[in-house]
Design brief:
The chain has one domain. Helix content is 71%, strand content 0%. It has three helices and no strands. Helix 1 packs across helix 2.
Length: 70
């Protein structure tokens, strides 16, 4: 169980969104948290891939070094 305090305006907007989606406040918050966690995981994976790619070479350079281009 998790309790979160929100200001009145945010609660009103959350209620309007839930109503528009045909769901409840808790479901909207659950989905938002899930999306946030998923986005952060994607960002972490992208940063990891970027770090690993720093030592890589362009394909054209690699083909030339291996004598595959002519």
């Amino acid at each position: 169980m998790l309790a979160v305090r929100l200001d009145e305006q945010v609660e009103k907007e959350l209620d309007m969104l839930a109503k528009a989606l045909g769901t409840n406040r808790s479901e909207v918050v659950r989905e938002a948290i899930f999306q946030y966690l998923e986005d952060n995981e994607d960002l972490a994976l992208a940063k990891q891939a970027e770090r690993q790619a720093k030592g890589s070479k362009p394909l054209a350079q690699l083909r030339k070094e291996l004598g595959l281009d002519g």
